[in-house]
Design brief:
The protein is an alpha+beta fold. It has 4 domains: 176 residues, Penicillin binding protein transpeptidase fold (Orthogonal Bundle); 254 residues, Beta-lactamase (3-Layer(aba) Sandwich), CATH 3.40.710.10; 64 residues, no CATH class; 88 residues, Sandwich (Immunoglobulin-like), CATH 2.60.40.10. 32% of the residues lie in helices and 19% in strands. It has 22 helices and 28 strands. The strands form 10 sheets. A 5-stranded antiparallel beta sheet has the order 7-6-16-15-14, sandwiched between helices. Strands 22-28-27-24-25 form a 5-stranded mixed beta sheet, with no helix packed on it. A hairpin with a 2-residue loop joins strand 24 and strand 25. It is elongated. The termini are far apart.
Length: 794
């Protein structure tokens, strides 16, 4: 030995290095479940690990009762030995010799951790010795509490259950922190004999082991006599419990976004959800779904957002219980569906912001045909002209198509993409003007996010001293640790990057007064116990029903329909989605209404009749509008007309001296708009007729008395062929300022008939080009060309 000191030293160094680097790295590399928790750490759901085991991610926090129970059962001197317990080993050797078989291993918790880490199948003396050596190395690297946590996270608990967290949920349906003494003791004895947990097998043996452990805990003073007696009475678990499924669709979304697609998968995700609210919203959807199912409507989805943070508080991607045959597994929240009318307030806000309209600017609401597209209101009635704000309140289709045409399809398409509607990814011409009525698809996630960003921008207007935080428009968030970005004061913007506070305020103000017609056709205002800005939408073919509601604190989005896209009669937003929306708001605290951003608004004089910026001759009102409203168009409907002294007849300089004329400001509408408007507005006064001696061509041309409702412009009319092979008849419709006058109809120079009061005439022209000529009894004349295209019947 003296002759080779260097060799001996090198040998010791070599052995020390083997010892020092002997621990596997990492100790455990088994696949784990994807676990989803709410903001308070409550379990929302879990996805089984890739190897088919219920193995939760490692948890450094071990239940106090389980820790005491497992130490008492497995390793009483755990906190005093260096990884091996000589006393336990000697006792085990003595017991094994006396029994002539292995009845005790003498393994410490540290040794068992190493056995689980090595996954050794053989249990010979050499394997035991190696585990003993590694146990001492484990004690050097980790603290006692860390070793206990490693054991609790990786111990087998029977069947495909691994680790304390999974076992507590599978066998007792609760968090390990909530385990009773009896439950903790049951789990403490299981890793030693995991097969005992199987229902119907060895129940007496498991009960006996548990009770013996409880008795030892009682004798050591770790639980009092009452707790001991009660623990003995607790039954064993009958069968594994299903894990909570409070947010199954968000779990799958998180798995896709944070587990499957990342190099370092996140196995435990703490979310922003509130598990109590999540359960309540789930029940609301189930309750409403029972009603909707009777009409063949099987799916519902809902989203609740906290405005200030943009955090998701409840995420129900589909109603629980819809069944696989009805696509219960489909997460509708992120699915792109036809938007219906849900985008209308955004167009209204953008036009207000740019001064294209004022809140009460009259928008045409008449039968309309634009480049072959014929939009119709939901109830196929028309007002002639309707205030823009009223068009939002009543969700009228034709006025919004007219507004989109005025604003610009390409521009609105661009703004929607800036607002975060990434599902609208085709060129503008792909959607056309139906874009505003549901011709595009968007997700509930995108819709709810946009309205929450508008609310946040409005809330921050005064705290930011009238400036804009570019981060107020940002994606929704469901990760608890993710904090919204903070913007320094010097980086705030003087101009709105998206929708201004004033435009958002006026849009929300209109949205809190929604009206819909009842069964008698009368418009009825909806009421709620909360002051809510809300909007509904219904897609083409009654396939999607939407509702979104906004307050200062919360945004709620709801979708109703069928996951497979099947349409159903009665599947409309106000009937299918709105009741769910209000039920959810009843679960939320009420909040004050938005503050009006007066620093960004002006009181503007408007024409009382038209809502446009007032002319000097207009009767005037004053309204609040965005600053750009000062440049809004002036009233196009008021004009000075010339009457005789009796004020009964219009006159002109051709038939009356100027000194004998009375000049009167008059609210004058085009014939078609007037035709529908006066039926809705009894106070409307049509223009007085011209005096007989003043019916000059110039007077008539300055104020046309006739206008075709259909066909509106030189157009092609597609007429189907009936079963008998003849073309179907076409109804032509005319508006006349004086409907009592008789109108004579001529087609291609041939007299076809006359009408009085109701100027509708059914004609059957052959395929080809034609000329329609109309002459009233006063000699007023109107000509309109059109072409008939035969459409073969299929």
């Amino acid at each position: 030995m003296k002759a080779h000191p260097k060799k001996l030293l090198l040998g010791f160094v070599f052995l020390f290095l083997i010892y020092w680097f002997s621990l596997p790295t990492p100790l455990f590399n088994d696949p784990a479940c994807m676990v989803l928790e709410d903001r308070n750490g409550n379990l929302l759901g879990a996805r089984i690990a890739a190897d088919g085991q219920w193995r939760f991610p490692p948890n450094s926090d071990v239940s106090e009762k389980f820790a005491k129970a497992i130490i008492e059962f497995e390793d009483r001197r755990f906190y005093r030995h260096p990884g091996i317990d000589p006393i336990s080993l000697l006792r085990a050797v003595k017991q094994n010799i006396s029994k002539r078989r292995i009845v005790s291993g003498g393994s410490t918790i540290s040794m068992q951790v190493m056995r689980m880490a090595l996954k050794a199948k053989s249990r010979n003396i050499f394997q035991k010795l190696w585990e003993t050596i590694l146990a001492t190395r484990l004690e050097i690297k980790f603290s006692k509490d860390e070793i206990l946590a490693l054991y609790a996270s990786n111990a087998p608990f029977g069947g495909n259950v691994v680790g304390l967290d999974a076992a507590a949920w599978r066998y007792f349906g609760k968090s390990p922190k909530l385990l009773s003494w009896a439950e903790a003791s049951t789990l403490a004895v299981l890793p030693n004999s995991p097969s005992l947990i199987h229902p119907g097998k060895n129940r007496k043996a498991l009960l006996s082991k548990r009770n013996r452990l409880l008795e030892r805990l009682f004798k050591r003073g770790l639980l009092d006599s009452l707790s001991f007696e009660l623990a003995l009475e607790e039954p064993l678990p009958e069968k594994p419990h299903p894990l909570p499924r409070l947010a199954p669709h968000l779990l799958e979304r998180a798995y896709s976004e944070h587990f499957r697609r990342k190099k370092k998968p996140i196995t435990k995700l703490k979310t922003t959800l509130d598990n109590q609210l999540q359960m309540q919203v789930t029940k609301v959807l189930q309750r409403n779904n029972r009603v909707l199912k009777s009409n063949g409507i099987h799916n519902l989805a809902a989203l609740v957002i906290e405005v200030e943070t943009g955090n998701v508080l409840a995420y129900v991607g589909n109603v629980v219980g819809a069944g696989r045959e009805h696509g219960e597994e489909v997460d509708v929240i992120k699915a792109a569906r036809s938007t219906g009318s849900i985008l209308k307030p955004l167009l209204y806000a953008l036009m207000l912001q740019e001064g294209k309209i004022l809140p009460n600017s009259l928008i045409p609401d008449i039968p309309t045909q634009l480049s072959g597209y014929r939009p119709k209101n939901f109830y196929e009635s028309y007002d002639g002209l309707v205030p823009a704000r009223k068009a939002v309140i009543r969700s009228l289709n034709v006025p919004f198509v007219r507004m989109l045409q005025r604003y610009g399809l390409e521009k609105f398409h661009f703004e929607l993409q800036k607002l975060g509607f990434y599902s609208i990814n085709h060129p503008p011409d792909y959607y056309g003007l139906p874009l505003i009525l549901g011709g595009a698809e968007a997700s509930l996630w995108e819709i709810a996010n946009t309205y929450s960003c508008m609310a946040r921008t409005l809330n921050h207007f005064f705290p930011n001293d009238g400036q804009y935080d570019p981060h107020d428009f940002r994606p929704l968030n469901y990760e608890f640790e993710k904090r919204p970005p903070a913007t320094p004061k010097e980086h705030l913007l003087s101009e709105p990057p998206r929708i201004s506070a004033s435009a958002a305020y006026l849009a929300f103000d209109a949205m809190q007064n929604l009206e819909r017609p009842n069964s008698e056709g009368e418009w009825r205002r909806f009421q709620s116990s909360h002051r809510i800005a809300w909007k509904t939408g219904t897609s083409f073919g009654f396939r999607d029903a939407w509702a979104v509601g906004i307050t200062r604190r919360f945004v709620v989005g709801v979708w109703a329909g069928n996951a497979d896209g099947e349409g159903r009669p009665g599947l409309i937003g106000v009937l299918a989605a709105a009741p769910v929306l209000f039920d959810i708001f009843d679960l939320l605290p009420a909040s004050a209404w938005f503050e009006q951003p007066t620093d960004e608004m002006r009181q503007i004089e408007v024409c009382r009749n038209s809502g446009y910026r007032a002319l000097p001759i207009c009767p005037k009102d004053s309204i609040w509008a965005p600053l750009a409203g000062e440049n809004a168009p002036q009233c196009p409907f008021h004009r000075l007309i010339h009457l005789d002294k009796s004020r009964q007849w219009q006159v002109s300089s051709d038939c009356e001296l100027p000194s004998n004329m009375v000049h009167v400001p008059y609210f004058v509408l085009p014939p078609v708009e007037e035709y529908y408007y006066k039926s809705r507005n009894p106070n409307y006064k049509p223009l007085p007729p011209f005096r007989k001696d003043c019916l000059s061509a110039n007077a008539a041309d300055s104020n046309p008395v006739m206008q075709l409702i259909y066909p509106k412009h030189p157009t092609k009319i597609y007429v189907p062929v009936d079963l008998d092979g003849n073309l179907s008849r076409t109804v032509f419709k005319l508006a006349h300022r004086n409907p009592e006058l008789t109108v004579f109809w001529h087609l291609d120079g041939e007299y076809m008939g006359s009408t009085t009061a109701f100027h509708n005439l059914e004609l059957n022209p052959p395929a080809g080009k034609h000329l329609l000529t109309l002459v009233d009894e006063k000699g007023n004349r109107l000509e309109q060309g059109f072409e008939i295209l035969a459409k073969e019947k299929k």
